[in-house]
Amino acid sequence: MTGDLAGAYRSGAQRARVVTEAWGEKNLFCPNCSSPKLTWLEPGHPASDYSCPACGFWYQLKSQKSRLGDSITDGAYNAMMKAIQNDEMPSFYFMHYDLATWGVRNLLLVPHFAFPPSAIIKRRPLSPTARRAGWVGCNFNLSRIPADARIPVVITRSSSRRRGDESLPGKLERLLTSAPTGEFTTSEVYTFTRELEQLHPDNRHVRDKIRQQLQVLREMGLLIHLGRGEWRLPDPAAP
Description:
Layout: H1 12-27, E1 39-40, E2 50-51, E3 58-64, E4 71-76, H2 77-85, E5 91-98, E6 103-110, E7 120-122, E8 137-141, E9 151-154, H3 159-177, E10 183-185, H4 186-189, H5 193-199, H6 206-219, E11 224-227, E12 230-232
Parallel strand pairs: 3-5
Antiparallel strand pairs: 1-2, 2-3, 4-8, 5-6, 6-9, 7-8, 10-12, 11-12
């Protein structure tokens, strides 16, 4: 992100807002259609930070310097509940950034239709001495949103996890090149199931996904289906 934009502000919240929203204007896209860009809305626009210039869908960007956990702070409780009840909820991008480098660490997309009322947690009213005395905010409880609707866009893994990830391509390469013909079976690919489950703990259908991806690779011409559960890599010398 362009951290120099923060130089004109003293408030940490303002600095983060300006830098992250500017990054969003240049990099966020609309998953509802083919638009590669979103239009940034003027500050103070109710409920949304961006809109899609093609399909008109609305989006909000919630950014924080701490990692994305189950609970994320949002705005007014009544306004959020009203948006859900009236089907006026925007889709959300949730960002975890590194303040020292202004780097995007993780980015999560949750579509507007995936927020149940139970995911909106009411906070205590502000104290009578607060500037907005009596105001009631809310938090998002991401654990109450279906796992398939918490869509990772940017992921930064820990060094220990990366070392584990790096072992997978080597194993797969050995599998695909273990025979002179480049042939293998679906059962051999299943040997990666446990490691894939560790990498994707929210996916409870890893074997189904493996079969699906083998079919996708076949349709792309990157694999040849020899028969039931048998595959072969294309001959690179073939025209």
